[in-house]
Prior knowledge:
By secondary structure, this protein is of the alpha/beta class.
Amino acid sequence: MAIAIIVGRDLQETKDYHWFTNAWKKELLDFDSTLDIRIWPDVGDVNEIVAAFVWLPPVGVFKNFPQLKLIASLAAGVDHVINDLDLPKHVPIVRVTDPYMATDIIQYVQVCVLHYVKRMEVWEEKQKEKIWFKKPPFNYSDKTIGIMGLGFLGEKAARALQHVGLKVVGWRQTQKKIPDLKSYSGKEEFLTFLAQTDILVCMLPLTKETRNILNKNTFAQLPKDAYIINLGRGEHLVEEDLLQALSSGRLSGACLDVFRQEPLPPEHPFWSQPKIRVTPHIASVTNPHTAAPQIYENYCNLITGKKLLNTVDVEKGY
Length: 318
Ligand code: NDP
């Protein structure tokens, strides 16, 4: 019985590849030095592989393993796994829900929101010109933050924003009452949610329902001058629609952590649009040290026949 760590596409050609794979291997062996962990593509006899721990696995890779019984995404998102059309239907998929990762995300969302609310960009510009330009920050009470996706990460981010005195509403797939947090659900309530949202924060998983959801129709429903923060996935955003909405003045700005193409190519217009703040997919980076315990626990659950944690509904896509 062996585990394959499969890391592909974006990392394989980079110096981070060995760091990433070795870090995961080390953390897992710290729990159990008898684990047989192999790094793709040097996995030996494919019939011995029962679990695959993956980040951006090469498309079609899973069909190499006839005895596969578990796929664990080494990240919160699973779009990099379930987009594979050859995904074996009978193999359960689990993902990471790491409280440390949530803290990272909370801090990222808070920084982006407060940077905007406190008009930090204005002061930075004026400082360059040595101009004492006194314009009040937006009143805390006159802005509403709308979080798309009130799941493991989204709800925590919403709470953290409430904690610093901001008004927050949320939107999710299913109806669920959350104490002291107004939440809307489904397509029926999407427009009501958007109409009151001055700062739209996308924390959705990428699914067939949510792909391209940040588009011109969505932007048109927001109050004028709304601000966009996207840390879900690049494919949530229709890039041309954002550029158009910024140049027409419909939206006031955007902070983007994720992109259709990563790394964002040097010629991409986002780099030079002054109303866009670009961060290189760092809202949260899975930390093998903090996430390995739950990956190991799930592997043990598999071996001992116990219930798996953090399973993904492949039909829903998250
Ligand atoms: P969860 O699965 O816990 O939460 C997903 C939320 O999205 C749920 O509230 C769900 O609704 C909602 N949702 C899903 N589909 C729809 C839809 N069609 N319409 C409305 N709401 C929908 O995920 P996490 O909170 O753990 O992570 C969210 C995403 O954040 C990840 O998938 C990943 O893409 C991104 N991420 C980005 C990172 C970065 O560094 N930029 C780091 C980590 C994550 P319901 O509750 O009703 O099911």
